Amino acid sequence: MVSSPEMKGDSWIRALLGLGFWIQGLRGMPWMAVTYFLKDGLKVDPSKIQLLQNSANLPMVAKPLYGILSDAVYIKGQHRIPYIAIGALLQAVSWLALAILTPSSIFTISLYLLLGNFGASIVEVANDAIVAETGKQPSSSGVIQSFVSMASSAGGIIGNLLGGVAVARFAPQSMFLLFALLLSLQFFITLTIHESSLNLPKNKNEEGMRKQFSDLVLALRKPEIAYSIGWFFASYAIIPALTGTMFFYQTQYLKIETSVLGISKVFGQVALLLWSAIYSKKLKSVPPRRLISMIQATMAVFMVSDALFVKQFYQKMGVPDSVYVVVFSGFLEVLFFFKILPFSVLMAQLCPPGCEGSLMAFVMSAVALAFIVSGYLGVALASIVGVTGNEFFGLSRGLLIQAACTLLPLFWSSYIYDDTKSKVKSKKEE
């Protein structure tokens, strides 16, 4: 039987996106090494580590610009593949520099991490645009999003498992080098693929970037898009992140081994992988507003559980700290990302043709900015409750404040677009 061009295009898309999202999922491995390098090698305190890691995400905020470039500026007749190759190359250069040059200055390390995240953001924008373009087909709605989410989770499982084991046995530079080699492999493989083989929609715009920017603005003026993105941004930004503080609490105070933390992250990635499969099979028909609100409430419950953990509630019940860290902490870490899958499906359905890359890039830049704001708020909260690298007395109070902040967005969840009401209205009118 001869395969149709559409089937061949779908196979190439899955191969390209599967590789791209799998490698991006592996980023947990070098970033775990970065955390331990800063903590043990350079003796950086938790607040500075959290500030550095959040500031390194600043290139992600400029994703709309990369999206407009990708939508409007074609390189040799292609506007997705070249950007994936460029982004992979920039990442490879940054991690290779960290591996070979071994900088001891926090400023220099920050520059290399900024370059790496700049490349990662370009790759993610191009990949997200392909996902959005493919996902607009009724037969592919939700399917391709679940596929790439599973690929990313699979990469996360392998990356965190390797990271948890390798960080105790090898120098961080070895992990930087390994990831740089994988990115180089992605770069060369991407160069062998031509965009015409993907059978993507032809949206080439002769009016260029100005028209793409105008289309993005028009899309953002639609209430169902603007209000949904506004809520999604606030639902992350309003939560003061205490990830750096919890990391120091687990490693400095509880003396949790690196292998346990690695297994914890693996458990989280497995949960994310299962979530992608379950969503694709069972939950696509659930209204986005209801599903996202349920996830938000569940996040708050797990934060209260963390406060009980710090108060040694579970330890008194006979639950070892390592078991709690693996199961509950691992799950909470990825629970933050559960909302992205149903929200990306919603945005793909609402996105006007021709500006998929721009709109999805804007959404992900809003998420990146929200995480940065969340990180800065977390540093401020840790200072207010009196938590330092060696003092954790106020941590449980900080976690309860975090949980309360997580519940606040539920009071205005009506801003998330829900087409079930419009369908009911249209049926009544008929």
Structure description:
- It is a single chain.
- By secondary structure, the protein is mainly alpha-helical.
- The protein is 76% helix and 0% strand.
- The protein has 20 helices and no strands.
- The longest helix is centred in the first third of the chain and has 30 residues.
- It is globular and about 60 Å long.
- The termini are far apart.
- The relative contact order is 0.15.
- The C terminus is likely disordered.
Topology at a glance:
Elements: H1 5-25, H2 28-41, H3 46-55, H4 58-61, H5 63-72, H6 81-101, H7 106-135, H8 143-166, H9 172-191, H10 208-220, H11 223-237, H12 243-253, H13 258-283, H14 288-310, H15 313-316, H16 321-338, H17 340-350, H18 356-384, H19 395-407, H20 419-429
Helix pairs in contact: 1-7, 1-8, 1-9, 2-8, 2-9, 3-12, 3-18, 5-7, 5-10, 5-18, 6-7, 6-9, 7-8, 7-18, 8-13, 11-18, 13-16, 14-16, 14-19
Features:
430 residues; mainly alpha; 20 helices; 76% helix; globular; disordered C terminus
Short structural description:
Residues 422-430 have low confidence and may be disordered. With 430 residues, the chain is an all-alpha fold.
Gyration radius, in Å: 22 Å
Give the number of DSSP strands: 0
Tally of alpha and pi helices: 20
Unreliable stretches, pLDDT < 50, 5 or more residues? 422-430
- N- and C-termini, Cα separation: 45 Å
